[in-house]
Amino acid sequence: MVTMPGLLCALLLAFPAQTASGQDAPAPLNPRERAVHLLNRLGFGPAPGDVERLLEMGEQAWLDEQLRPAPAQDPRLAAALAGFETLELSPAGASQWVYQDYVGRGKKEEDLSDEERQQLRERRRQPGRELIQSVLYRAVLSDRRAEEVLTDFWRNHFNVSFTKGDAIEVQINDYERMVLRRNVFGKFEDMLRASARHAAMLNYLDNAVSRRPPTKQELAEIERNVKRRTGSEARASEEVQIAAERGLNENYARELLELHTLGVDNGYEQEDVVALAEALTGWTYDAGRRASQEFTFRADMHVESDKRVLGKTFSEDKEGGPGQGEAILQHLAGHKNTARFIATKLTRYLVNDEAPPAAVDAAAKAFLKSGGDLTATVRAIVASEEFWSRRNFEAKFKTPYEFVVSALRATGAEISDAQALTWTLQSMNQPVYFCDDPTGWYDTAEAWLDPGVLALRWQFAMDLSEGRLRGVKIPREFWNAVPDDAPPETWQHHLSLLLLPEGAGERTRAALASVTADYLAKKKVPDLRELGPQLVGLLLGSPEFQKQ
Question: Cα–Cα distance between 197 and 175 in angstroms, integer?
Answer without folding.
Answer: 10
